[in-house]
Structure formats: structure tokens, C-alpha cells
Amino acid sequence: MSNASSAPQHSTDLPNGWEMVVGLEVHVELDTKTKLFSASPNHFGDEPNTNIDPVTLGLPGALPVLNKHAVELAIRLGLALNCTVQPSTFHRKNYFYQDMPKAYQISQYDQPINIDGYMMLPGDVRIGIERAHLEEDTGKSTHIGGTSGRIHGSDYSLVDFNRAGVPLVEIVSRPDIRNSDQARQYVAELRSILLAVGASDAKMEEGSMRCDVNVSVRKPGAEFGTRCEIKNVNSIRAVGKAIDYEARRQIDVLESGGTIRQETRHWDDGEGRTHTLRTKEDADDYRYFLEPDLVLLDPDQEWIESIRASLPLLPAARRAQLATLTGANKESESVYVIVERGQDDYVSAVAQAGGDAARALVYVQQAFAEEGATPKVAASDIATLTQMERDAKITATQAKTILSEMVANGGGDPVAIAAAKGFEALDTSAVEAMVDAAIAQQADAWAKYCAGEEKAMGALVGAIMKSSQGKADGKVVTAILQARRAK
Amino acid sequence: MTQPFATVVDIAADIASGKTSAVEVLEQHLARITERESDIHAFNLVTTEQARATAQQVDADIKAGKPVGPLAGVPVALKDNMCTRGIETTCSSKILEGWKPPYDATVVTRLQQAGAVMVGKTNLDEFAMGSSTENSAFGPTKNPLDTSRVPGGSSGGSAAAVAAGFAAVSLGSDTGGSIRQPASLCGLVGVKPTYGLVSRQGIVAFASSLDQVGPFTHTVADAALMMEVIGGHDPLDSTSLPQPMLSLTSVLGQGVKGMRIGRLADMPDGCEPEVLARMDAAYVALQAAGATIVDISLPSLSYCLTAYYLVAPAEASSNLARYDGVRYGMRVETGDLHSMYGATRAAGFGAEVKRRIMLGTYALSAGYFDAYYGKALKVRRLIANDFAAAYEKCDVILTPTSPTVAFPLGDKTSDPLTMYLCDIFTIPTNLAGHAAMSVPFGTGAHNMPVGVQVLAPALGEQTMFRVAAELERAS
Amino acid sequence: MTSQLSGMLDHFADIDKLDLSNVAPLAQPFPLKNVFREDVVVAGLDRDEVLAAAPAAEDGRFRVPPSLGLGEQ
To answer: Could you tell me which chains touch chain C, where touching means 3 or more CB pairs under 8 A?
Structure first.
């Protein structure tokens, strides 16, 4: 998954001055060993119905007991999202469905554990977080028969309760998002924060992170329009597409004199459009009431502060640190990518070993896409490589070749590799001789270049690189050519 | 009142000392079951073979000199809403008929560890909703003292099993009086412990914030022993009180000297005069033993019935939603999921259960929540406040357990409200989460037993048992 | 049953007489808080035993008739 700022900018202005108003509800599965209210494993991909117990199955007489680690992860996430952690309660949300074993979901309702946070997006855009509350996940149904496993027209369904009771945090943003780029940035940043604090593995493809999107449109300054909730938005790319589609759909309806019905819609990624799932009129009455089988959750201040103290540096702070170290823009693609991969400490280690931080940023971004937070190549060897390039002992092209070899071999001494490949920097007088030879051979190009046609330089550089067999440093060649012209 | 059957304390002592054997004791009880069960219908299931195997094991352990528990060889019956691994647990409902839980309730495990021998699962009003055990899908239980009369309910089967000598002791559950009222009607001791003192894990929920498990016994000492076995913290129940079990057997001889006994100044209408006469006798007896009688009032008492019949059905409507034909129990096959739910629940639940689910669903629904459920929770606070004020003046409160003695079968089945009035004295305790117990104290009309209810504040069991023991001595 | 229910609701209107405006609701008897379990796996139920008690099962899962509507998530 690419980071938000590096993804193509496909959010476009809406027609006729319309503005979209977007809020996101993101469910994330917490990375615990067991379920929210029982001791069965919380583990994705196991054989169906092997992670079950009386609580998970909603057997008569089974009682929930809250998983302390799930609470701790929820608090970690809340603090990372700048929320206030408050005393909280659990309610029962009553509804019948085959994958909801007790026919109610235990969820936090009017007193959620985390409230009133925010997240910063590029350009100092602040997105409010209304709440981030604990609740339990449902089981999973497979629809058999009919057309292609879809629910409508299926012959029957098979239910697996392994996922039932897995701890979730639902993060509800305020309707502060104004375009699909921000929405994608929000989801990407949330994912980075989840990974950084260890709250979730946040794998959208495995469903451990799932987005519902609320979209409405209005003219700027007007009251909020009627919103539609879009479900089944299962990738960051889809978040952007679904929002753009839905905003335009609503504008089309309004501009043709219609009104927007408050409804839940389903994103069809294949068709690239949303469909009505149910309207507000058929909305269930969930008959929320306080869960009598659970007690008040009131984390004491000491616990909250010890969790706060144990938080790692968050992605935004790490990006700022990396930007300062490397001189790059904190909103640049390379900074986002490196922090997302967790390789910022590695870049910092290269710098500490005497390497050039700016070069290291480029090398690591280019060469270590497949590596984790700690690439196998020793940071000191990368430091040496950046020094060799900086000191013009090798060219940028040669550096890249050496780097590839180091990555392929899981390490290596760049000095030895350069020597083995016969990479040695030509001294400046040798390059000057080659430049002069090229000017003599390519008189036309030289004349054009001197007349101010910058493109003509390419032919000259090409000739020089050829005669030097790639050993001449492109930057040095360019500098000499410019000096000759200036004379 | 004398009782013809051996007590838990005596049975356990005689088996442990080798005076008799667990098998012998069991066979005596099984013989009485054979003789009278067809008339009484105390049980949904008699677990003869398992019981014999357990009793033999107890005897073998004793013979081998192994240490045995305080209930070694004592025959117990369990209300059929307590999960017993591999043994049918039905709640006297068609919707759970045939269901064998894959796990044991905590109280069941504790009984097993104490060496008890389970003889069977007892009949109840379906999902514990009723006061006569006439709402069972498998037919009513009769009162062993007069089989034309009800045993009370909802734990009527558990009461009848002990009253008929089918088991030395039984467990019931009490949501609004379901242990105390049948104990009263069958001439037994019945205890509703402080909420959270006994684990609810594995007890099929009726109303989670009200349900508690407790024993039916012939004597106060047996009840104290049973409480010590089943009570105490359980990490599998989040509402279990985080403290060790109170010692009760040790306080029974301490008497009531200097104790202040609360008497309701404004007794609600509807009590039989013979019941009131026994209450007067109880006050006299306690006074004679050195206690003082003080008048107290519970101004919100008359609203408790309403609060209870909104809170309990509301919780029940949610607790019983899980019987949907998907994972266990009955299913009526239809073409689609939602009609399957409807058909299964229509066929699986009896009238009273449906009535309470509808009532509870209504009380919780948007637009009515504040008027019904919300208000009921506030009345619940009022009665708790009333009790708090009363317990400034007294240590325990005495009331009748039931306004009447056991009534004839069919007497109250046509009008649910009349039936609900049976619970007028027992419901407030559940709403407040306090302790209460019924102690047999002579007989009333038709020579049927009358129970006196001793109410105590939360965790006031020691005081409550001292008063109960005194009443027992005086009866 | 509907008439019985409305009769009961009429009876329950007795609490309308009470002034409850300053009364806090009491949903649970005692104010316990922070009851937790540690995040440790305990052996659960055997799938075959559980599915044997199910009304219908197939392929290690519970079998149900098709739904005409959609669930929550």
C-alpha cells in the first residue's frame, strides 16, 4: 500500500461550487491474543469454528469478562489520537443476524473510552476524532449457491464464529474531511499510527481494518446536507473512489431537482459505484441498554500515564525528525515512505555512522522497499557508500550499481565492490580532456549549446559518458561544460 | 416444623464417618423418586446412572482414605436452568429441549468438587418466568405437601424435590422471589444471596441484574453449609463480588440478642390473615430471644412490582434473543433466515415467555425507553434508598415471603397480574441486590406452610442467618 | 395477548405519579469497576461437539437459510 501523499491526486474539484463533507468510521481489530470478552484465540485464518467458547457462541449462561490488554491497546490508540480517556460503559446493541451469536453486540454507546481527539494531515489540516470506542466483532458468513457467493439469491449461508468477539475499536471522525485526498490521507495516517503503537496489524485486505464513509454535499457555508453512509470500502484507493463517486451522485440528484434520502449504501468496487443497501425507514431500533453483565471501565490516571509514557514516537513526529535530519520536506513522498516502512531509524543510523543523510534517504527509499524496519545491509556500509559518492570517488550511477549488489548479497563493503568492478573516479583533468575531445567531435551540438539551447548538452554528455565507459561523474561533466561555455 | 428427611449436615457426617454409604443414601432418595415422582413431576430429568457412578466413586474415595468434600455423597437436585456438561439443560422450554451444554456452571463445578451427587434437573416455569411452575413446557410440578396445589415458582421443581425427599438439597435461581416463594410454599428454607455473592456463570440468564442462585434445604444449618460451598468470588462472572465467602455455619448459634428487627408499618393489602398471624408470632419469638422490634417503612414498595415487571422483561427480551435456531436448540425450517427466526421462536417459546419478551422489547424501544425502562431504573434507586434509610434503624426486616400459602393449580393462570402479585414481598430485594431468605414458620390456611422472609442489606448474610436460626428454633 | 399487555401497561402507569426528575437510575446493584481478565488463551470448545448440537451444520460451519436482508457489517 502506498502512502497517501504519494498516491496519484485523483480528487478533482466538484462542479458548480459544491463542497463535500465527509466523516469516516473505521473499525480496527486489536492485536490481542484472545477475544474481547473470552479466552479463545484472536487469530485470523484458522479453520472455521476452532476459536470458539461459550461466550463466543452466545451459549446460554455464558458471561463476558473484559480483556485487559484490549483495553490497554484501545487507550494506546486513543492517546495516539490525542483523545481524552474517560470512564466508560458497555451497552447491548440488539439486533438479529446470523453472525451475531447473542443477537446483541456489546459496544460502547454514550460513554466511550476515548473522546475528543484529532489527527493532523498534510498542510496543517486538522481532522477531529469524535470517539474511539471498544466493541466486539461479528462472525463471518459465506453465501452458498446463487450467483457468485453474493447474499441475494444465495441458497443458504454457512457461518464461522472465529471472528465473533474479536476486539474492535471504532474510530469515528468528525465531518471535517473536505475531499477524497484528505480521506485517503486520514486512513493512511490512521494505519501508520495503528502500526506504530502496536494496536492492530491494520490489514485492510484481511479485514482487520474496515472503513465506512459518511458523505454529504453542500454549498460552502450552508448547513450540512443529508448524508449517506457507504459500507464495504475495503482499500485506501476505494475510499477515494467511493467518496468521489458518491459526492457526484448526490450532486446529480440535487441538481436535477431531487432530494437525498438518508440511507446506507454499498460500494461495489468492480462496478465503481454505490448501491442502496437500506434506507433510514427500515433502520433497526437497536434498543440500547446498559450491559448488566459488565461493570464500569474506569482506568485510573496512573495506568493511563504509564501507557502514555510507553508510547513510541508517532509517525508525524518521526517524519518531522527525518525531515530535519535529511533536509527533505516533511510532507515529501520519501519521508512518508521511509517512516511508513519504519526505516527512519536506519537512515538515522547511517547518518550517525558518518553518512550523508540526504543520500541515505534516497538510497533507502530506492533499494529497501522489500526490507523491514532493519535492512540487512549494515548502516555503516551505506554510510561509506554515501561518502564515496559525495566525495566523487564514484558516480551516482556507480553508487546505484554498488547498492544493488549490496542489497542482493545482504551486505558488503562498498569500497571492495567498487574496486572489484573497476569503479574509480577519473580525476578532473582526465574528464576535462574528454570534454574537450567531445566538443571537438560534436561541434554542432557545442554551437547550439553555446547559443543557449540547453537540450544540446545531452549529446555532449552522452559522448563523454561513452568515452569514459560510465566512469565520469555526470555532475562533474556538466560543471565543466558550463564553465567552458561561460568563458 | 419437623421434617421427615435427613439433613445435609447429617448425611455428610454419616457418609464421611462410614455410618452409611453414599450409594445407600442415594438409593433411599431414588426409591422415593420411583415412588412419588410420577405424581409430583419435580424433575425434567433424573440422572440415575451418573448419580450411581458418582456415589460409588465417593464411597471408593472414602474407603481409600482420600480426603472428600463437605458434601461428599449428598444427593442434590439442580434447577434445569443450570448448565451441566453433557446433561440436558432445557429451562423447561421447547426451544432448548435436548440441548446438552458443553460446559458446567460454576456452581455445578463447586458442588462436584464438594463431592455432591447430582440426582437430576428440576422443573421450572419456562426460563424461570412464573410463580407456580405451571409455565413449564413439560407440565406443572405439584406441591408434595398437597398435590392439588402449586409448589410455587419459578424454582418449583427444586422446592418439590427437597420437600418430597428426592434430594437432600437443591439449587434454584431467584430473580424476583423464585427461590424464597417456593421455599415458603413447600415448607423449606430458601436463600436469595446478595447479588454477586454466588456466580451466575453457566446459569441461563433471565434478568442478569437480578438473577442469583441459592439453595433449598430443610434446615438453616444446611442452607449455611450450602452457601459456603457455592458462594465466593468467580473470575468468570464480572459482577461477582471480589471478596472471600462469608462464614455462615459459624454464626448460627449467636442468637439475636440486641438485634433490631424491622417491621413494615404499612403492610400491603392482600395477605391471608393466617399469614399475618404467623408474622406476629415471629416478632414475639424474636423479642423473646432478646431482639427489639422497630417499625420501618418502605414508601416505594408499592411501585416495585411495576419496576420489576419492566426491568426484568427488558433484560429478558435481550437475554432470550439468542434462541434463534442458528447454533443450538430448536429450529423450525423455513425458506429464509428471518422467517426461520420468527417460526422457531413462535413454536419454541410458551405464552408467558412471549408476553415478557414483548413487554421488555416495548419497554426498551425508542420512544418508550424513558417512559418505561428509564423510569423503572429510577424506581429501583428509590427502593434502594428506602432500604438504606430503613437499615439505619434496624438490622434486618421481617415480612411474609408470600401473601398466601400454596394455592390450587390453575388458580392464577388466567390473569398474569394476579400471579405477579405473589412476588410483592420478594421483588424489592432483587431490585436492591440485597440478601433475603425464607424460613418455615408454622402453617396457615389448609394446614399449608407459611414462610417468614428475613431481609438483610447487601452482604448482611451473617445477621440474616442468625435471625433465621432463631426463627427455626422457635418454630 | 395484546389486550393483556395493554392491561399491564395501564397498571404500570402507576409510576407516572412519582416525581423522578432528580433520581439517578440504578441499572446494577453495586458499583463495581475495572473487572478484567488477562489476555491469555484458554482451551475452548470442541468444534465437532458444538456442531453436533447445531440444528444444521456443513463443512465445519453452522448452516442457515438464506437472508433476504443484510447484516450490520
So the answer is: A, B
